[in-house]
Amino acid sequence: MAFDPTNVDLTTASARDIICYLQIGENQYNGHLPARISAVFVMLVVSTLGTAFPYIGKQMPRLRIPTPVYLFARYFGSGVIVSTAFIHL
Asked: How far apart are CA 1 and CA 16, in angstroms?
């Protein structure tokens, strides 16, 4: 009798069947490696621009960013940094 990894019930299966299921079962990876790699760089660029916006707005008065927009971006960015710190704790 051949092992069929698609018919394994992990709640009632033996340890041997679970190990076989994990080793022989199909992978969920869909092959979109370039999209995954580019997503890292997109997040890097967008997060850099988002966090640098208040600093650039303060250093370049020619941009004429309204005070409420500047304060919102500043406090929102600070909140993201603080919440990220709490999540990583």
From this structure: 15
DSSP readout, 10-70?
Answer: TTT--HHHHHHHHHHSPP---S-HHHHHHHHHHHHHHHHHHHHHHHHHHH-GGG---HHHH
* Contacting residues for 6 by C-beta, under 8 A, at least 6 apart: 25
Separation of CA 4 from chain center: 34
Crossing angle between the packed helical segments 33-59 and 67-88, to the nearest 10 degrees: 130
Boundaries of every domain in the chain? 1-30, 32-89
Tens place of pLDDT for every residue, the chain, 89 residues?
566 667 766 677 778 777 776 776 666 666 778 888 999 999 999 888 877 877 888 888 887 888 898 888 888 888 988 999 999 88
Is the pTM above the cut of 0.85?
no
